[in-house]
Amino acid sequence: MATLQTKSAARLMMAPAVIALLIWMIVPLSLTLYFSTLNYNLFNPADTPFIGLTNYRFFLSDPAFFTALRNTLTLVVGVLFITVCGGILLALLLDQVFYGVNIVRLLVIAPFFVMPTVAALVWKNMMMNPVYGVIGQFLNWIGIGAIDWFSNAPLTAIIIIVAWQWLPFATLILLTALQSLSEEQKEAAEMDGAGALSIFWYITLPHMARAITVVILIQTIFLLSIFAEIYVTTSGGPGLQTTNIPYLVYSQALLQFDVGGASAGGIVAVILANIVAFFLVRIIGKNLDA
Amino acid sequence: MARAVSTRRKITFTIIGWTVGLLIFFPVLWTILTSFKTELDAISIPPKWIFFDWTLENYATVQERSNYFRFMMNSVYLALGSTALGLIFAIPAAWAMAFSPTPRTKDVLLWMLSTKMLPAVGVLIPIYLIFRDWGLLDSRVGLIVVLFLINLPIMVWMLYTYFKEIPGEILEAARMDGASLSKEITHVLAPMSVPGIASTVLLSVILAWNEAFWTLNLTTSNAAPLTTFIASYSSPQGNFYAKLSAASTLAIAPILILGWFSQKQLVRGLTFGAVK
Fold it and tell me: Which of A113, A161, A208, A234 is the mutation pick for testing B, counting most B CBs within 10 A?
């Protein structure tokens, strides 16, 4: 039982981790907030006058911001759609009994462990290159004709790459949820004459609802900060077609050296992520009680 | 309980399952195959599947031209360094939360997890400037600290869930039997917590190895790990598919193998316990 002594010992044991995270969160975040109110360019770091909310006004009224916001949302929604639908189907498939199901499961989850820079470059060059890429050659072979993904549909190309990386995550979590569904319930429904489709619709899907919500929330948090895949394939281009908010902030800070403007962008990104995090933390909190 | 399944159904699903599995795995398989081709075979039309002159020259070239080994060692240092540092901070914290919980424990844990949800671009600029002023850009030490901090919440969380599974009664029983504190730790606690710690290490190493925001932004050459090295292929000169494949195969192989062993832990660690 927690006596006064063990309580203070516990506090002492938690202190290093709490303090480390507190510093990591508060110091840079308040600096970002502070920089976002300055006219601060790395070309002229000596003169950084306070300009209030002007950076936000510029950032939020910059057409590039709206393009980036739209791209960010398209990327998130596109990847979520593919991974959740694909994940449900894959989870149902891997829940079946067949020869080598364990090996197939390993094959399906493999993309998750491929580092983002490798995934992006392999897809861009060896899969999606219109001349030498496997997809292009396949499309030529069946008569549709190769697509120059990165010139004609760059954001779609990025969505496909990122969805490939996240499909295993959704599959694995949905499979875990699926396997906790009791056989008896399904058997009872079968005996009552329910078809496979209505079992899926009325029993399986509601059972997975919570896991689906969690997949959506967690993936959204990570997908809002997609960076490496864009950095190595398109550098945000052509034009601004694949620039999302993280990439816009990066290019404003480290390519255009506009610290003030980029900081305002960073704060906007934090606010966006917090909206999602709010719901996620509530779900996790409820589970901790249970 | 195994379900009774007709053979026909089983064979149908075997065909569908393997087709889908191989399709998803294909980019990885293709990368591995291409790494053993000559550059000319790598871009041949139609593609050559397995009937080509197998060669190891790409692996040699990648090492010779760019000193691949150095980048790999950087990845190893970063993954192990940040994980070790993480354990030092996370084990006591998770231990305290699991064994002497207070009403505030839950809030602290949730707060820790919420720091993981902070987008990196929100703190990129100050971290970059601090690193520049302190001479930490392109240094392994600086990056180890950053990777340690971004993985710390997940490590605390994972260890907490594992420690919580250790029944407190066992400790009391050991104490009643007259075990001293050191015996209690070495004979009772350590053996019971090793599996959880091992899983946490595995997950942390995987996440650190593949981290590609901070590594790309904070390193250029000296401290650059494999993520940054592979990114250098984004501006290629001449034929490079086979070389890219060789470099990629080496970069993903160790983590792929570790990852295959840690599927379950992955679900536990990355869903923050929101799915059971």
Answer: A113
What is the tens place of the pLDDT at every residue in A29-85? Answer: 888 888 888 888 877 777 778 887 888 888 888 888 889 999 999 999 999 999 999
Length of chain B: 276
- Per the structure, the complete domain to which residue A180 belongs is given by 34-104+169-289
Q: Above pLDDT 90, what percent of chain A? A: 30
Cβ atoms within 10 Å of A185's Cβ, excluding its own: 13
Query: Does residue A12 lie in a domain region?
Result: no
How many angstroms separate the CA atoms of A184 and B149, rounded?
A: 45
Rounded to the nearest integer, the mean pLDDT of chain B is 85
Q: Which amino acid is at B54?
A: W
| A15 within some domain | no
Closest CB to A32 among B110, B123, B236? B123
Q: Is A194 part of any domain?
A: yes
Whether B206 and B218 have beta carbons less than 8 Å apart is answered as no
Optimal mutation site among B49, B68, B89, B121, interface A, most CBs of chain A within 10 A: B121
For residue A194, with 0-12 CB atoms within 10 Å meaning exposed, 13-18 middle and 19 or more buried, which class applies? Answer: middle
Q: In this prediction, does ipTM exceed 0.90?
A: no
B248 with A122: Cβ contact below 8 A: yes
- Domains defined along chain B, listed by start: 66-232 (1.10.3720.10)
Q: What is the mean pLDDT of residues B201-210?
A: 90
Q: Which residues pair with A38 in a beta bridge?
A: A50
Alpha carbons A237 and A154: distance in angstroms, whole number: 8
Q: pTM of the entire structure?
A: 0.88
Total domains in the fold of chain A? 1
CATH number at residue A91: 1.10.3720.10
Indicate the pLDDT class of residue A290, thresholds 50, 70 and 90. low
Highest mean pLDDT among A71-85, A215-229, A248-262: A71-85
